[in-house]
Design a protein that fits this description.
Blueprint (H helix, E strand, L loop, with lengths): L3 H4 L17 H13 L11 H13 L4 H8 L3 H7 L1 H25 L1
Helix pairs in contact: 4-5
Length: 110
């Protein structure tokens, strides 16, 4: 799978026209609306930027490393940690529980 950072043009734009020119925010929004409108029963909730947050949140909740999420979004680890601290904390608690369970299993085998 190609990350957004890898798909950006040389100017750092993710969304570009077929000619390779950066799309204006309104153009991205209109394209998003057209795609939502094309699917019967689908309704738009929030702005297109919400998809970015949903993507990052789902990845972090699934335990994907922060560095990997940062690379996919084209952000720094510090930005991801600041923005999604609540998901990272949950992942840390989950990893601690997994470690504790593994230690308990090994102790029982000894």
């Amino acid at each position: 799978m190609v990350s957004l950072a890898e798909r950006r043009d040389r100017g750092g734009h993710v969304f570009v026209t077929p000619a390779g020119e950066p799309m204006a925010n309104w153009q991205v929004g209109e394209a998003f609306d057209r795609h939502v409108d094309a699917v019967e029963g689908l309704r738009r909730v929030g702005e297109i930027h919400c998809l970015r947050h949903s993507h990052a949140s789902h990845l972090l909740a699934a335990g994907v490393p922060v560095a990997t999420v940062a690379k996919r979004l084209g952000d720094t680890i510090a930005v991801i940690e600041k923005t999604y601290a609540h998901w990272i904390q949950g992942a840390d608690e989950q990893s601690a529980a997994t470690w504790a369970a593994r230690r308990g299993t090994r102790a029982a085998r000894s």
